[in-house]
Amino acid sequence: MKKLALAAFAIVLTTAAATAQDGIKRTPLQKTDFPDGYTTITGLAEIQPGVSAGRHTHPGIETGYVLEGETVMSIDGEPDRTMKAGDSYTIPAGVPHDAKAVGDKPVKVIGIYIIERGKPLATPVQ
């Protein structure tokens, strides 16, 4: 059952990543149907230097933690933030945002998404 859930999550991530540039590796870690009506998804994103995730939204809150490297986080309505290992962030549901790896090393981020069950993990934004 867990393998099936992770495989389904990998498909969701691959589909969501289709609009992003090469240079991003997404690894599904865990998926749980909780709380009621929502799915909680945990994943690892690795973004190569100079690569951007691409502007997108989520149908629920995203929280994250930078494990390694440095990123510039652009969240609509907020000033851009340069974040490094040890920094964390929260992005409200439906708010367009982007992350770009800066410096000479990849950035690794753990992301946790609490999204409305049955909705896509991410939707691209122009």
From TrEMBL:
It comes from Aquibium oceanicum. Pfam families: Cupin_2 (PF07883). SUPFAM superfamilies: RmlC-like cupins. Residues 1-20 form the signal peptide. Keywords: Signal. Residues 44-112 form the Cupin type-2 domain. The lineage of its organism: Bacteria, Pseudomonadati, Pseudomonadota, Alphaproteobacteria, Hyphomicrobiales. This is Cupin. PANTHER family: CUPIN DOMAIN PROTEIN (AFU_ORTHOLOGUE AFUA_3G13620). The keyword Signal applies.
